[in-house]
Amino acid sequence: MKPVRLFLLFLAASGACAQESWQSPDSDVSLLHFPTKLVDDLPHFFIDENIVPFAVGGLATTLDWTLLDGQNKLAAELQGWNAQALFNFGDFYGEGWIEGGLGLGGWGLGALTDDLRLEEFGRDVMEALAYDGVVAAGFKFTVQRKRPSGGNTYSFPSGHSITAFCFAPVVTKYWGWEAGAAAYVLASVDGLARVEGYYHYLSDVFAGATFGILIGNAVTYTPKDVSVSVAPGTMELSYKL
Questions:
Q1: What is the CA radius of gyration of the chain?
Q2: d(CA 125, CA 99)
Q3: How far apart are CA 117 and CA 175, in angstroms?
Q4: What are phi and psi of 154, to 5 degrees?
Q5: Cα first-last separation, the chain
Q6: Alpha-carbon distance 109 to 103, whole Å?
Q7: What is the rounded CA–CA span in Å between residue 228 and residue 29?
Q8: Quick one: which H or E segment has residue 62?
């Protein structure tokens, strides 16, 4: 399947798989409230839902860095797939133009059409991308790992992978597991593309995917004692004691 068709399939799934189970404890989608939500969501990086991704991702990153990165055989194997068009799309997808465009577009379109789900989706995407930039820059300049290609920029973690994977939990939250699965597939394509192009070792991608999932889970976290119901012209927020 051509990359463009794959992306169109993702867009179709996103629109067709909307579910009624979404809920957010913070329905203030104003721009002025955005910095407050950024701060309020910091503790959510330590939620139970992030324990398994952190443990598995951390183990995969460590094992790959110590045992396999020196050989870097995966890059050569991927180049033998004869799927350069797909990998080119994966590189583009992880740059954030798609995620950022959908985030800003959803936020703005939701405001124009009074669609709270779409507004919150767009806001949470932009929040995830904000965390993405801070985490990627912080770790790159702290670790200062050279790229497999020997380029002048740093390799660990993969910023493209953080971007692609932080988007997937947000999609899952607001549009259902089917659309979320498509987003995870596209994120995986991006990760493989970064290895195939010798931009990153596989451990860089594992770390980026882990950070991305932690970010996505944090910005979409809803406490279990909070429920939100929305109907045309009304919204109800309740707390279970």
A1: 18
A2: 7
A3: 9
A4: -90, 160
A5: 50
A6: 10
A7: 15
A8: helix 51-63
Q: Which residues pair with 227 in a beta bridge?
A: 238
pLDDT at 156: 95
CA distance 213 to 89: 21
Residue spans of the domains in the chain: they are: 52-239
Give the mean pLDDT of the chain. Answer: 84
Q: Are 214 and 196 in contact (CB under 8 A)?
A: no
Q: What's this model's pTM, rounded to 2 decimal places?
A: 0.82
Cα–Cα distance for residue pair 55/139, rounded to 1 Å: 18
**Strand 226-231 to 234-239 pairing:** antiparallel
- 86, with CB counted inside 10 A (0-12, 13-18, 19+), is middle
Q: Tell me the one-letter amino acid at 136.
A: A
Listed residue (211, 160, 215) closest to 188, CA to CA: 160
223 neighbors 212 (Cβ within 8 angstroms) = no
* pLDDT of residue 91 exceeding 80: yes
What confidence score (pLDDT) does residue 79 get? 81
Is the C-alpha dihedral spanning 3, 9, 15, 19 positive or negative?
Answer: negative
pLDDT at 16 over 80: no
Locate all alpha helices (DSSP H) within 114-239, ordered by sequence: 116-143, 159-175, 177-196, 202-219
